[in-house]
Amino acid sequence: MIEKSIQSSRGTVYYWTNEMIPHQRYAIVFCHGLTADHTLFDKQVEYLADEYKLITWDFPLHGKSRPYDKFTYANVNKELLSILNQENIEKIILVGQSAGGFIAQSFVQEYADKVIGFIGIGTTPFGKVYYKKSELFWIKHYSTIAKLYPYSYYCKASAKASSLTEEARGNMYKTLSILGKKDMLKAASAVYGEFLKIEDEVQFKCPVLITYGEYDNTGYVRKYNNSWAEKTGYPMKIISNASHNANYDNFEEFNDMLISFIQSNL
């Protein structure tokens, strides 16, 4: 994978990609979760890079894509569109983990014609219809609560809560340590603040697959995913022996699931 970047008045955004695979008409774009970075998808890159055009990125306020001004989902969409234009990519499959699923859904809302597939990993749907006000309390006050903890403790606890395997926990702990407490709080406030503004559910015009880890106990992820699948009829699969970062915990099962999704729908 080759490191590249795009620039705007808001900041520099970094991404990683391989060469376009002959005869492939689309790219797979991976969107990491809150306070993670592009390395969350290292196991997918290792498995897929020889056969598919891939893009991983540190979306704004994360990883190398700091500092960044005027964070909004609309501005993040502009950055991703700039990446696609720079790579001459017309169509994409979006894979969004946790808050990366928010970024992906926002892009679908604005640029639906570019998206030919969506896979959510431990994310939750847009649309106030799914959420009770009491359940949104922890999202609204996440940064306030997180600020109370010593950051070393927060990093260890978050890594343990989000991942099942030692390797996956190590990845998350390293990412959080590099990010630092100040930027972690800034990212959380920005990402969740934007999410709380969303009123309408996404009307997908492409194939959708909802997934989450068997042992994902993050918030109400299980409840929201089950409701999402039940309301829409979208297929849902539970990734065995995995927690919130399910694509890293059980990458073999997730990779097979991803390939099956592509072969069945595209």
UniProtKB/TrEMBL annotation:
<dbReference type="GO" id="GO:0016787">
    <property type="term" value="F:hydrolase activity"/>
</dbReference>
<keyword id="KW-0378">Hydrolase</keyword>
<dbReference type="InterPro" id="IPR000073">
    <property type="entry name" value="AB_hydrolase_1"/>
</dbReference>
<dbReference type="Pfam" id="PF00561">
    <property type="entry name" value="Abhydrolase_1"/>
</dbReference>
<dbReference type="InterPro" id="IPR029058">
    <property type="entry name" value="AB_hydrolase_fold"/>
</dbReference>
<dbReference type="InterPro" id="IPR050266">
    <property type="entry name" value="AB_hydrolase_sf"/>
</dbReference>
<protein>
    <submittedName>
        <fullName>Alpha/beta hydrolase</fullName>
    </submittedName>
</protein>
<feature type="domain" description="AB hydrolase-1">
    <location>
        <begin position="27"/>
        <end position="132"/>
    </location>
</feature>
